[in-house]
Structure formats: structure tokens, C-alpha cells
Description:
This protein has helices spanning 2-29, 35-53, 66-90, 93-99, 103-114, 122-140, 149-173, 179-201, 207-211, 213-241, 243-247, 253-264, 271-293. By secondary structure, the protein is mainly α. The model has no long low-confidence stretch (mean pLDDT 82).
Amino acid sequence: MKNKIMIGHILAFVCIMIWGSTFVSSKILLDTFTPIELLFIRFFIGFLTLCILSPKILKLENRKDEIWYILSGLTGVFLYYFLESTALVYTYATNVGVIISIAPFFTSILAYLCFKDEPFKINFAIGFIVALIGIFFISFNGKQMHLSPKGDILTIVAAMMWAIYSVVLKKVNELGHTSIQNTKRIFAWGLFFMALSFPFLGFDVSVNDILIPVNLLNLLFLGVIACAGCFVIWNYSCSILGSVRTNQYVYLNPIATIIFSAIILHERITAFIVLGTILTLSGLIISEYKKKES
Length: 294
């Protein structure tokens, strides 16, 4: 049992580190594609990847179970990513980085209200505050914070969507299907909702643009690894650790971004970043400590 829990922690950590690196690929691709175009292409590639890995169509014994997949695709695939991308148009990336990190707190509240086996504990609240202060130091890096109500509110809603997805995912995992089968069906519904938005948001993608080597490589990374791979292992980690414990790793996303910024973009690591990293890691440890003790 302890080995399985350790695997859950390792998978969640690996997943967050990969997601923290996706900003580089996204930044390159947004020069060619709109946010909704990029979103659809990357998840479509992810869906095709999962179909290759698990070609068998999942048949549900109870058709009412479909609602959990619909809600997962709507909240965790379409709305979360679309709202986050749209928020970046109206507010600073640093604001989004800090605000989106409240998702674990929303997840904990929802899990506490919905499930008796996911109690809300004081150490989680303390760890959340410590981690959020650390994320603030990392994201703003000594710069003044500028509020942008429209974009900041969109980011808060995006964090809520991820929290809803995390809680609904618990119901999906209880259905007894494999993580790949669950993720594939969630992606299918996410793509469905994206397609419904095309008449309003537009979709004009050229095959030639996709086949440009730098675009193709980045799309494959986002689709195969960041979408198909990471969603499968994240969903599996949630089935082992629970939605609250797994989502605590969201705190590490800004740290992952900083690491890849330093490696790929050669950005300077300052005292604010070091302090923020220490606080964020401390917050994660505080949140997790009591859970191991209980």
C-alpha cells in the first residue's frame, strides 16, 4: 500500500513538472494558432494517442454514468483551459499563475462538502496560505501586482472549474474502468464542447501550418505527452491519493515554470524566487504532514 501511495506522489510530481514546461510550446504555437485552435488540436492529438493505446470502445453498463464523463470533459478539458487562455488576454500571466493556484483550496472545500472521506483539516488551510505566499513571491518576483478584474475573475472561475473536475473525477474513478479508458472518454466530451464553440470563436486551421516542423514537434509534445500522458497519470494519481492530496501538487506548477524558464529561456533566478520556492515547498509539506498522520 505504501509503495502504491509513493507511486501516486511520484506520478503527480512528474505530471506537474511536465505541465510547468508547456508554456514554452504554447508561446511558440500561439504565434500561429488562436487559443481555441491550439486547444482543440492538442487534445485531438491526445485523443488519437489514447485511441491507439486503447482502441476498444468503453461500454457503460449504466447510461446514467455518462453524466460524470460529460461533466469532466466540460469542466476539466474545455472550460478550465479556455477560461485560463482567455484570462491571459485581459490580465497578466503572473496574476493567472497566482490565482490559478487556489484550485487546491476550492477542491478541498468541494471534496469536504461532497465526500465524507475527504475531510477539511486546519493543516491544509495553513499549508495553503504558506504555499500561496510562496507562489506570490515566485510569480511577481519583486514587481508590483496589477489587478485586472475581468481577467482575474475569469482565472478564479477557471480554478473553480478545475476543482469541480477534480471532484467529479472521483466519481469517474469509482466506475472501475482503466485510467486510459476514462481519460479517452473525457477527452471526447471535451472536444465535443470545443467544437460547439467554433461558430462563435472561429476555427481556421491550415494543414501546412501544422506540418511546419517546429509547430508539429510542439503540438506532438502538447498532445501526446502533456495531454494524453499527463491526464492519464494525473487521473490515476487521483484514484490513489484522492483529489485533495493530488491537487496539492498544483502548488509546484510555478516552480516548474521557473526551472524551465531558467534552463530554456535563461531567465535569472532571484532571491524572491528562492524564498518563494522554499515557502511553496514548505506549504506542500505542511498540508501533507497531517494527512499522513491521520
